[in-house]
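Data deposition worksheet. Section B asks for the primary sequence of the deposited chain exactly as it was used as input, without tags or linkers unless they were present during the calculation. Section C holds the resulting structure in token form. Section D is free text for depositor observations; keep each observation to a single sentence. Incomplete worksheets are returned to the depositor.
Section A, Depositor: J.P.
Section B:
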Amino acid sequence: MTKEKNYLWNHFYTKEERIVNIPDLSVYDYMMDITSSYRKLAVLNYFGRKITYEVFWDYIDKCARSLKALGVREKDVVTICLPNTPEAVISFFAINKIGAIVNMVHPLSAESEIKDYLNSTNSTVLIALNQCYSKIKNIIEETKVYRVIIASPSDSMPLLLNTMYNVTLGRKDEKPNKNSFYLFWNKFIHLGDSYQGIIKAKVKSKDPCVILHSGGTTGTPKSIVLSNRSIIGVNEQAKVFFDIVEVGESILSILPLFHCFGLVVGVFIPICKGATTILIPTFNAKRFDKLLVKYNPNYIIGVPTLFEALLKNSYLDNVSLASIKCLISGGDSLTPQKNAIINEFLKKHGSQGKIIQGYGMTETTGPVTFGTKGSDKLGSIGIPLPGNIVKICDPNTFEELKVGEIGEICIHSFVVMDGYLNNEKATKEVLVKHADGLEYIHTGDLGYMDNDGVLFYVQRIKRIIISSGYNIYPQHVENVLKDMDLIKDACVVGVPHPYKKEVAKAFIILEDGVEESYTTLKKIMDYANKHLAHYMIPKEYIFKKEFPKTKMAKVDYLKLQEELLEKNK
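Section C:
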């Protein structure tokens, strides 16, 4: 535990709240200990089918026995390539119970990506979505995987929905021939019924738990190893920032399990809290209203684009959202204006809650800061959670900057990653020892801290546009443009310029019903001229119907930038 100093944010916490103790347990053992009194409560809700804790524990045990029967050993890597289904959650804990390591992979990954993820982690068993079979069959022989378990989204659905799925969507899925290499989930789960060996391993908190794949701090794909200690540590911190959640309440978990925020905050913490996690394997933003009406969740965990979809959903006009106590946003930042608009939207629909932002990354096992204890200033990403230290530093000198100055967000914490898998060089580049003797993650993000110790995100360092010596922050320009009533979304990128070095250009998505015309363009240009400094004004505006997205549902500004570069060749 780091010796406590008088940090700006300390006044938000009591002395007791600032102390975090992490037991030396596995994620599985920790979960079992902390949920032992919730036996009859519903832990998961999947299409209306509620699974109690005791049934959940039994499924984990069955899955663990079946994995052992397949020959999975301690320290082996088992890959989960599933959306948000009970099978994914059960497998995660079962793999941890037997002392193996989980490798989480996006089901929509290309077959070459799946092969790389399997090979880089030396995976021996793959638990995959049935719809992935058409990709898996082409690459599996080039990996060390000796058994593939095929799971369908319908496996845990109520009987009627299961039948409907299998005669409609499921009927179209390509299926493997019956052989010993491929096993369907419903057969696999009973494979270990007669297994008599030891299934529970002695796992220490420092042992690796899960491998997640992310763009890293530079945007280059990396595999991030998180220990049991890191995941348990975030839940211990959650006793402060998740203290609003009561046992038996429900949480709509839309973020995918292969996303750190989705795995840790969307599923692990609610399970440990005694809340019911509503699992959604595929999310349709246009019919968000159906989910809210059907489940009446108390909390929703998602990214800003998801919550902005609330504002555009006309089906919610007369729907009460009184059940919602809080929206928890991460993965990207909201402008102060959008923050206020969403809060007002909730109020108009009968909710007394509001949206609260947090900040973190896969390398920090999810949330580092959160708008807890009244620190949720509009547009802010909250205060450091207990045990975390956040500094704003000059990106070049690592010198700590003054309050209000924009610099790189640097993080010291006991929940940071073990490192990038098989990439010691990249690990050392991002984990840097500072003059105070502590090791900090250099996030590659720009931000600033106010006098209260509340953190504000600005943007990625790599996205800075330097034009004639001026620093242009694309997200600031985007936020100004998005405040205009004609504009639904905006993305600003930098392109080379012969003497200014770079200039800013803006991609624009207009609000529904707004015509792409010179008149509209002129209004946008006049608005920008009025609300932006002259050096920040985009030199060109390009209308788009939609933006390309990354796998984490963020706007892929690099693709838009490439589009301009190709055009200007």
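Section D:
The first helix runs from residue 27 to 34.
The longest strand covers residues 439-449.
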